[in-house]
Amino acid sequence: MRCPYCGNDDTQVKDSRPTEDSGAIRRRRICNACGGRFTTFERVQLRDLTVVKKSGRKVPFDREKLSRSVFTALRKRSVDPERVERMLSGIVRQLESLGDVEITSDQIGDYAMEGLKGLDDVAFVRFASVYKNFSAADDFRSFLSELAHSDERDIQVDDD
User: Fold this and answer.
1) Which superkingdom does the taxonomy of this entry point to (predicted)?
2) Choice between 40 and 146, residue whose per-residue pLDDT is larger
């Protein structure tokens, strides 16, 4: 594994343990050249997914890109990283279980929004603002209004 600090290929595993949901192996590593310490995760990948962008362009699915987007939305929010990793793993499992090797960027965004809604309301709105391409304050107002109405419908359904 290449060191993220100096680029050296000579790194050593110091500690390995399964994640809380046993969906991955967490490895603490140290670089033998610079002494830098970092963590890697080893996960099962059922199939190679291809993302079909809105432009029609096709690119390989990149879990790290999804992770960066989610963690950007969660910046300065107090959400346990293990919960975020479980959510990300769940999104990937859902995408893999669709049965198709080609998935749309909209499907990924919808699953991410659904997951963030259950983790943190602020991160959910942050992610939605980028995903839905908000350009003005009115976009936020109408989105939050729609969200409030859908929550009211959910509560009415639950009361029955």
Assistant:
1) Bacteria
2) 40
Cβ neighbors of 112 (< 8 A, separation 6 or more) are: 66, 69, 70, 91, 127, 131
The Cα–Cα gap between 89 and 86 comes to 5
φ, ψ (nearest 5 deg) of residue 90: -65, -40
pLDDT band at 151 (very low <50, low <70, confident <90, very high): low
For 130, residues 6+ apart whose C-beta sits below 8 A from its C-beta are: 69, 73
Task: Give the pLDDT band of residue 77 (cuts 50, 70, 90).
Answer: very high
Q: Is the dihedral of CA 84, 90, 91, 92 positive or negative?
A: positive
Q: Are 60 and 48 in contact (CB under 8 A)?
A: yes
**pTM: predicted TM-score of the whole model, two decimal places:** 0.64
Tens of pLDDT along 95-129?
988 888 899 999 999 999 999 998 998 998 888 88
